Amino acid sequence: MQSSEERAAQDKRLAENLSKIKYRLVVISGKGGVGKTTVSVNLAYELANRGYKVGLMDADIHGPNIIKMLGAEGVQAYGDGKLIQPVKITDNLSAMSIALLTDDPDKPIIWRGPLKTGIIKQFISDVNWGELDYLIIDSPPGTGDEPLSVIQLINGVDGAIIVTTPQAVAILDSRKSVRFAEELKVPVVGIIENMSGMKCPHCGKEIEIFGKGGGKKAADDLKVPFLGFLPFEPEIVRYSDDGKPYIHFKRDSETAKRMVEIVSEIENWVQQKK
């Protein structure tokens, strides 16, 4: 249990860290398995590739996959006596995750809400992010403790990016994510429809595995921007498993080009908010 003095000191560090970050974006989804972490990793990597200083924070305490997708498995975060040092992925990209603080990747994190809120607060207040253009927060699915904690602790989230797949059950939950952001006074950057069709490797025709257009319709219905479609691409799975962000390592592919367009939409949205 923290004393009032310790709490005040941590709150001061939190405010100081946030004052060095220009833009704070949270990536959320109504349900799991829609590719939210893949979007977060590729978004952060591309922004860093464009010359921005970017921090990527993994707020998914129970399923921290960002470090694997960035090719930094086995790396441990360390402290300098004052702050925790995030792992450096590139010159412009740093990342922080609970996966960097555990030595056994198979050990589950069995925590209730207050402990999860506490570690998320530490990821903001006690990590040496330095001066950042963007802090991208990959939030776990749903509208519970973690996304709520992120938004409440970061007083002034600039925007929420909602990721969904086209099928009806995912769209239902993505609509709740939009309302969640709106109720918390967080501007909605837009909706991304992931796994939206797949090109047949044999005939080249598009196969609508999960349907198509549900995310676009939800965006139109809820009067929020639609950021674009991303197809179901098996190669993304392989590259993610190998720790190679697809947007960088398969830049000439059609899917990577769509990712680049979506990042440009997000970048333009942020710049217009200045």
> What Rg do the Cα atoms give?
18 Å
Shape: globular
Question: Based on DSSP secondary structure assignment, what is the total number of beta strands?
Answer: 12
The number of distinct helices, counting runs of at least 4 residues, comes to 10
Low-pLDDT ranges: none
Q: What is the CATH C level class, in words?
A: Alpha Beta
Explain this structure to me?
The chain is α/β, with parallel strands linked by helices and 274 residues long. The protein has a single domain, classed as Rossmann fold. Helix content is 41%, strand content 18%. It is built from ten helices and twelve strands. The strands form three sheets. The protein has an eight-stranded mixed beta sheet, with helices on both faces. A hairpin with a 4-residue loop joins strand 3 (78-79) and strand 4. The longest helix is centred in the C-terminal third of the chain and has 19 residues, at 254-272. The chain is globular. The mean pLDDT is 90.
